[in-house]
Amino acid sequence: MSDSGDLRQRLLARRDELAERVHRIGRDLHHREEPFSADFAEQVVEQENLDVLHSLEAEGRVELARVERALARLDRGEYSSCSRCGSEIAPARLAALPYADTCIDCAD
């Protein structure tokens, strides 16, 4: 795996990207100025779009929290240790999922 400086930069970049995405989605959701269409079919589409935005916002917040926890583990020197069993998390797993906090055996 790359050195901790490179890893930190990757995690920080991902954190910033997620924070901006969550902020934009939240702004779109909470500052909606136009009323729903008078057409029922259009209202259904608009509501479905809102539902998707809510889901994207929630997923973004979850991933953002995971990245924050990964940064904290990195600061404590525990980044590559499984939070459940303490064994080493495979470098390939961390490369694919940089905020993984469990080894493959302990993953849900």
Question: How would you characterize the overall build of this protein?
Answer:
With 108 residues, the chain is mostly helical. The protein has one domain. Helices cover 65% and strands 0% of the residues. The chain has 3 helices and no strands. It has helices at 4-30, 40-76, 91-96. Helix 1 (4-30) packs antiparallel against helix 2 (40-76). It is elongated. The two termini are 23 Å apart.
What is the topology?
Layout: H1 4-30, H2 40-76, H3 91-96
Helix pairs in contact: 1-2
Strand % is: under 5%
Shape: elongated
Low-confidence stretches: none
Helix-strand category: mainly alpha
Number of separate helices: 3
How far apart are the termini? 23 Å
Query: Domains counted in the coordinates: how many?
Result: 1
Q: Provide the gyration radius in Å.
A: 19 Å
The beta-strand count equals 0
Mean pLDDT: 89
Helix content: 55-70%
Main beta-sheet annotation: none
Order of helices and strands: HHH
Keywords:
elongated; mainly alpha; 108 residues
Provide a short characterization of the protein structure.
Helix content is 65%, strand content 0%.
